[in-house]
Amino acid sequence: MSMTLSPLLRKFMLTAHITFSVGWLGAVAVFLALAITGLTSEDALLVRTAYLAMGLSGWLIIVPSSLGALLTGVVQALGTPWGLFKHYWVLVKLVLTVGATLLLLLHMQPISYLAEVAAKTDLSATDLRGLRLQLLADAAAALVVLLAATAISVYKPWGRIGQWRRQQREHTQRVAAGRASAAPTPWGRYVLFILLGAGLLLVILKHLLSGGMGHH
Ligand code: HEM
User: Fold this and answer.
1) Number of continuous H segments (helices) and E segments (strands) in the chain
2) What is the CA(136)–ligand 1 centre distance, in A?
3) Is any atom of ligand 1 closer than 6 Å to the C-beta of 37?
4) 13 lines ligand 1 (CB under 6 A)
5) Which of 8, 162, 176, 203 has an alpha carbon 20 to 30 Å from 82's alpha carbon atom?
């Protein structure tokens, strides 16, 4: 599947893509600051304000930004020679973004719940502490994922999908013909696997922990 965007439309869509995706990162940074304030402040009014603002920024900015980043990203991938499944950097961003968006949508319910409670009453330091801690951990994890997605977008690492096997085959042939020595260490590949493994582990750990706290 490939349609090609005209240069003008490609720039326009790329502007939208960067605005949505990096705006999402900025909104999550604000959300994290509010989550820390909500958990640590002794000022009851400030705590209520923080959770109300988290509810609003979640629904009005973060959810639309995530869907916008995903949608415009897929359009850029399919509308340019990059393709959706041709380059590792695009595929990894797709996986990270779909994962982050799904987790976000799942976690909007506890965010709304806390905002509702905060709208009605003061939260003491111990009220709903597990849930408040979970939102802080969510925001921190999301920030790490979005920073990784931003860096991956700029560096565009790991090359084309299928290229490693092809290179390995060619290298083996050269070694067999006595025209090359053993292959160098594929560090980039290790980084990719460690990143994906760490991400998977993070999601699993988080859900074991939050399951243990009895929420969801
Ligand atoms: C939060 C997640 C994301 C962030 C922070 C992000 C960020 C960026 C940035 C900063 C660029 C510009 C890079 C440059 O021009 O050198 C870019 C380009 C691009 N992104 Fe994303 N992106 C995200 C998600 C996605 C997703 C989900 C896809 C598609 C699966 C995607 C596909 C692309 C493509 C194909 C380009 C190149 C477009 C072009 O050259 O016209 N991105 N992204």
Assistant:
1) 7, 0
2) 26
3) no
4) no
5) 203
